[in-house]
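Dear Dr. H.,

I hope your travels went smoothly. While you were away I took the liberty of generating a structure for the chain from your last submission, since the lab meeting agenda had it listed for discussion. I wanted you to have the full record in hand beforehand rather than looking at slides cold. The sequence, exactly as received, is reproduced here:
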Amino acid sequence: MFAPSQLELLPAASVPALLAPDARAKARTLEFFTAHIRNPNTRKAYARAGQHFADWCARFGIGDVRQVQPVHVALYVEQLDLAAPSVKQRLAALRALFDWLVVGQVMPINPAAAVRGPRYSVKTGKTPVLSASEVRDLVESIDAESLVGMRDRALIGTMVYTFARVGAVTRLRVEDVYTQRRRLWVRLDEKGGKRHEMPCHHRLEEWLYDYLEAAGIADDPGGPLFRSARAATDTLTSRPMSQADVYRMIRRRAEAAGIATAIGCHSFRATGITEYLLNGGKLEIAQQMANHESSRTTGLYDRRGDQIKLNEVERIGI
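The corresponding predicted structure, in token form, is as follows:
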């Protein structure tokens, strides 16, 4: 349906015949993926879902979106060999797309509206977390004498101490690190266009100062804060690190520190929230610090129960 390189602009040629059997349907579908969906990650996920459903319909001889009935969507959902959250995401994508086409009078009803997805409920997230000692081991294993090492230490510290998503961290500019009330603060642009400001923990403050001084980028306020490095060198470029760059760096640093847990970028957000709560922090304050709409979302990052389970399982005296 949409090639990865086309996802930002979505030219008309990329719309399949199923979803765009005529000019009006084609225009309406393009509007959905460009004007209606602004988040690039959501756009990519919904585009993949639309492409997969279009391919499925083609196998059954359905060539016009107006021929799709609820039974077709139900059968498609039933045949998906995916985890429940992924199935629910695919169904949500189809519901949103068909709603848009119904409002645009391309089709009379939304065939996905009446289809129920699988039941799925979680009280604890699956994001791998680290203990406080593991985070210290990870940070101490980084060569703080090298510029890249200072960058990596400051980046990891930003995710741990501000509970920031990796996307917000990679979007940071030099001017987003500023002084207020005699402390260093960071200004984060989180998902959904939300501006979020957080004071720095004293360790993060020290790491950011060291990195900014060593990198010599203070006179480039509009430039990216965390910059990519030239291959196998200790020299930074003027380009920001991508999320893939950050992930590779984390995996490399974790392996060097002897950490067996398969952590990723989001692990530091979950680790920071858990450690904050373990040290007497309040869930509603953690919600504000993490910039969550609901405390239920913050609760998914609370992994204090893991320690309780570990302590209790040792009571099995065999």
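Two observations you may find useful: The longest strand covers residues 183-190. Residues 22 and 64 are 9 Å apart (CA to CA).

With kind regards,
E. W.
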